Amino acid sequence: MTQPVRHFLDLWRHDGATLRAILDDAHARKAARKGWTQGRVDADAPARDRTLAMIFEKNSTRTRFSFDAAMRQLGGDVIISTASDMQLGRGETIEDTARVLSRMVDAIMLRANHHDDVERLALGSTVPVINGLSDKGHPCQIIADIMTFEEHRGPIAGKTLAWVGDGNNVCASFIHAAPKLGFQFNVAAPALYFPDLMDLVRAAGEQGRVHTTHDPREAVEGADCVIADTWVSMGDVDYDQRMAALEPYQVNSGLMGLAAKDSVFLHCLPAHRGEEVTDEVIDGPQSLIWDEAENRIHAQKSILAWCFGAI
Ligand code: CP
Ligand code: NVA
Questions:
Q1: Contacts of 267 (CB under 8 A, 6+ apart)
Q2: Residue in 14, 20, 50, 138 annotated catalytic
Q3: How many angstroms separate the CA atoms of 266 and 292, rounded?
Q4: What is the CATH number of the domain that holds 103?
């Protein structure tokens, strides 16, 4: 019997054991290459003779460079394009694109405006498809974030993470992960920018580890980790309304002072200093943002290794 294709589209689709195995592999791979140059290939080279196609409908620094570096470290190669340079940009369907690329590469990463397009690509593809951010989720980011937390504060299970701000795509992937990996996830967001109801219902149906409030102080009280993201994501058009509604949700030293004494701060970047987070916090001793950015490489290597059946 043929194995199902291993797509990585949303964290809620995977069981906790799979996510744990990916995280454990990421920790191990990072430790094994301590002191190596960035370009050196891992000993097992699980992507040897494999090519990843990357398609971008939106801008990217971290996702683009980390996937490229990740494939090189796994012994594979990449082909990168913006969607607008492809026939996709002139109306060729996602389904036809999926069929063509499936004949040319071994996996496809898509950064998409609309999550449906990631799903359609996966439905039409015979090789693994990875969600490199959509309007509904950013699963690769959350693997890197959890890895970063664990490096500094130990296993995520039983810990409390607090999200402050827009209940956006990155927040959604944390909601997807909480029941799977056994951490408490508190979300403080204004009514206008609350997390997706479907995500909350699904989490409640799993193990109910997600708590929502409009009050940032309530969410952060005693938390082991505080997380912020931009108030205006790529594709958002209601800038003025967002700035007004989200203004009370800034992560500053006063708010951080309510979290646990040894709490840490995460932000997927790019950041807007002085808006969702102050300089004092993002550049302060609790901030793990540079490790978090680096860990995009290590996390993605393990996601890719899982997609290729090496985990
Ligand atoms: N965090 C993140 O995905 O960054 P980029 O938009 O630069 O890829
Ligand atoms: N929420 C942000 C994350 C960027 C990495 C966005 O979608 O623009």
A1: 227, 228, 229, 276, 277, 282, 287, 289, 292
A2: 138
A3: 7
A4: 3.40.50.1370
> How does DSSP assign 173-230, residue by residue?
HHHHHHHHHT-EEEEE--GGGPPPHHHHHHHHHHT--EEEES-HHHHHTT-SEEEE--
Please report whether residue 266 resides in a domain. yes
pTM of this prediction exceeds 0.70: yes
Domain enclosing residue 281, as ranges? 139-292
Nearest CA to ligand 1 atom 7: 61
In a domain, 255, yes or no: yes
How much of the chain exceeds pLDDT 90, in percent? 97
Each residue of 183-214: pLDDT tens digit? 999 999 999 999 999 999 999 998 778 999 99
111 is catalytic: yes
What is the pLDDT confidence band of residue 1, given thresholds at 50, 70 and 90?
low
Question: Whose CA is closest to atom 6 on ligand 2?
Answer: 233
